[in-house]
Amino acid sequence: MFCRGLISAWIAHCFATALILLGGHARADEPVVAAASDLKFALEDVAQAFTLKTGHVVRLTFGSSGTFATQIRNGAPFELYLSADEDHVLKLHAEGLTRDRGALYAIGRIVLIVPPDSTLPLDGELDGLAAWLAAGRIKRFAIANPEHAPYGQRAEEALRHAGLWDAIKPRLVLGENVSQAAQFAISGSADGGIIALSLAISPQMIPLGRHALIPADWHAPLRQRMVLLRQAGATAQHFYAYLQTADARVIMRRYGFVLADENG
Question: Which CATH superfamily, name and number, covers 108-218?
């Protein structure tokens, strides 16, 4: 019950924060940053380090990259957008809503995750999952909604690669974003799930689930891109620049985020 309450509170906080931000105006000196939910723990650490270094504060809200892109088109008061799929950023740029094409900030990875007490054989090639599916032992399985969440799209691709998509599709529990899928996967609402590596290896999540890394070539690359929106002010610009510094990269690598020229 404690685990379920902890994760539920975290998800509720994310959505409540988003609603508050979209319903009002951000303070001029505290820009609103819209970030993919796989960044929940990593970006909070980066923002804290940024505040300690500069004295400036940014307001973080987490959710589905696709949902944020739609909100930006509808005038949401974001100044910086960090997407889990660079295509969303490039499309917004083509529509004239961003300052430029932005910058690649991470390559994401996905994992199979199960609750700590699960007896599901855990392997990145999903052989154990396949065996349990064949035996009828998988009742519910969590991924983010592939219709708008990049991590859900990559989960679908990995399951298709393993030849499991048709069998598992009727058993899927879809999270609004990958953070909610993680909640379902480890809280007892499902037998397991496919979520972001960055969430699975966070200090907050490690006690709540066991995970196995899925091969990167089983799905399209999770090229994650960030960009300043047209209305971005000075603090948002400073935070954008800070995210590209060595100090920020150290934190991002701690959560499994690497770039093409870095060793993971």
Answer: Periplasmic binding protein-like II (3.40.190.10)
